[in-house]
Design brief:
2 copies of one chain form a homodimer.
Chain A: E1 24-33, H1 46-60, E2 69-73, H2 79-87, H3 93-97, E3 103-107, E4 112-116, E5 122-129, H4 133-148, E6 155-156, E7 160-161, E8 173-180, H5 182-186, H6 190-199, E9 202-205, E10 218-223, H7 231-259, H8 261-277, H9 283-298, H10 307-316, H11 319-325, H12 332-347
Antiparallel strand pairs in A: 1-5, 1-8, 2-3, 3-4, 4-5, 6-7, 8-10, 9-10
Helix pairs in contact in A: 2-11, 8-9, 9-10
């Protein structure tokens, strides 16, 4: 598959289907794994790194993935293509901006991606729409086992899986859910959520992981600790908290609908009107406006769009996607024009039901 | 004619026709006149005031006006109805909020209105679309003469027409044009216009005359002095300045179109998108957004509306008009809902070409 084919569709995790998918965008498990008998990457020479990449690709290229896999060697891709993979949540920003031999194996439905030579030899990600962390973990567990049949992991009976960064030692697992919480943000209740969540050892991050701020009212909730707890305990911990946040968001939405319906509708429809008519629009404003439109679709104020279409717009309006869609390099101000143009096309005419 | 019939149409001066009508909304002449042998109103008792009203109505009720006239006795109208007349520029705010016997004779096309017992016994207004101050003056001169055939004006060979306020003595005339100057405002060149205009003894005021601030990028330019100059000289003074301002606005529009077309289009279409989608909208925001839409129609960016329709929206979305249209008293926040509703109706469906 050509990388450019990616832009004609979005990953299955963005369909908007799945439990609580109006509020929970996705459930994600990521494992950090390293090979036994090989240096950690921060100690490895370029040729040792290249050896690892070759070795792992050889072992994994035929591993069964949903709808088969595609391998992209990042060091052979242009910056724009690497950024495209970041925008689709298939690789991390670090993996994109890293150096040397490295790659990613991506399943056709984009629900699975296996990064080779990111921070660790392997970073394995499974992503599903909606709130289904246990299901995601079970699938990940199978995938992890089938990788372990092909390679030997660096493992200590005392510490568990060994990783470059001590914060990942143990399970090597990061479980996270991406939440869309516009009502909690609008009513400034979101800080309460942060406080409760951090009290029980969970972290809150923005749309593109560590170090990014929450934009478009999207928040990732994930475990901080990887050591001293089983994978299932971590999954259950998050799995017990998220439904409470979902209920909280839902309650606030209902309150807004009963007490300030006109103001809420005003916010939603103004956002829609701006997206449908703007001629110049930044990425940040797009996220904010799409967030309001997404809320409007969920609350059945807007019925000419479905959640899958809105979810897709979040991805397709990002810088690398736009440049791929318009098939040329665009600077920031040209992108703002192209973005407005693209969104207008999607919201009027065939793109909209 | 019932007052409520007014809301089904707008005055002929709002059609958007006439010379330079894209920039010059209207040309207006107003004369202040008093009756010979009667006290100025600030000295008159209630019954003397009532006498003047009765006398003048009797003399003027059959005066020929375009399409015949309608007389409204303001002291018999509800506040809302008086406000309606203010919003249509048929009476002044002062006339609406005054006390005692007073009224206004309005021509069917709303181009002429004769206020009885405003500040002076008579305030006569002639209003035309576009830049046609001389034509307006000629028509006013005829009207003034035919009134003078019926009543005797207070006139001094030395000072001219005598008025309550010394600033009106002499010609008793205020000539003004209403300009729509969005490009000069946008590029902050408008202060230069103010400076030049005030240097030659002209005044700049907002949409509803003295003491109102310019909203929706509308400015009234009028003479300060009424004494020591003939009416024609006053008209010619304004008539020589306004075309320069019009040219200035036009040049800036052209520059914006050639240098920042996308940003200008963005501004215009965002305004249109907000008006078409908002569920709650204030009077002030409506003026600002309509101003951008008006510019867009003039620049042929928006072709689904004509200037007459946009001009009408400026009037019809004012508080009293809204309450008349919705046939009930509405407080500010109910008006903001009703206004959004009304505008949406006008911009989608039959209201729009």
């Amino acid at each position: 598959m050509q990388l450019s084919e990616l832009i004609s569709k979005t990953g299955s995790w963005l369909t908007g289907k799945g439990p609580e998918a109006d509020i929970v965008i996705s459930s994600r498990i990521r494992l950090a794994r390293n090979l036994e008998g090989r240096k950690f990457l921060y100690q490895a020479s370029d040729s040792e790194k290249a050896d690892v990449e070759r070795f792992l690709y050889g072992k994994l290229e035929n591993i069964p993935l949903p709808g088969n896999g595609n391998y992209f060697r990042l060091d052979e891709l242009e910056t724009l293509d690497r950024l495209l993979l970041v925008e689709r949540h298939l690789i991390s920003k670090e993996h994109a901006s890293g150096s040397g031999a490295r790659g990613v194996l991506v399943s056709a439905n984009e629900g699975t991606s296996i990064m080779i030579n990111e921070e660790d030899h392997l970073r394995i990600q499974v992503l599903h729409p909606g709130l289904q962390l246990e299901q995601t973990w079970l699938e990940m567990n199978d995938l992890d086992s089938s990788i372990e049949e092909r390679v030997n992991y660096a493992f200590s009976p005392k510490f568990g899986y060994l990783t470059c960064c001590p914060t990942n030692v143990g399970t090597g697992m990061r479980a996270s859910v991406m939440l869309h919480l516009p009502a909690l943000v609008m009513t400034k209740q979101i800080t309460k959520v942060f406080e409760s969540v951090s009290k029980i050892g969970l972290a809150v991050r923005g749309l593109y992981g560590e170090g990014t701020y929450a934009s478009g009212d999207f928040y990732q909730i994930s475990n901080q600790l990887t050591l001293g707890k089983t994978e299932m305990a971590i999954v259950e911990n998050i799995g017990s908290v998220v439904p409470q946040i979902v209920r909280y968001e839902r309650t606030v939405r209902e309150t807004l609908m009963s007490q300030s319906k006109a103001l809420l509708e005003d916010r939603v429809w103004r956002a829609y009107g701006l997206l449908k008519n703007a001629r110049v629009i930044s990425s940040e404003e797009t996220l904010d406006l799409l967030s309001a439109v997404r809320l409007g679709v969920n609350l059945e104020m807007i019925n000419r769009l479905d959640i899958g279409q809105v979810n897709a717009l979040f991805i397709l309006t990002q810088p690398a996607h736009l440049q791929k869609i318009f098939k040329k390099k665009l600077d920031t101000s040209s992108r703002d024009l192209a973005r407005a143009d693209f969104i207008r096309g999607k919201l009027s005419g065939n793109g909209v039901k």
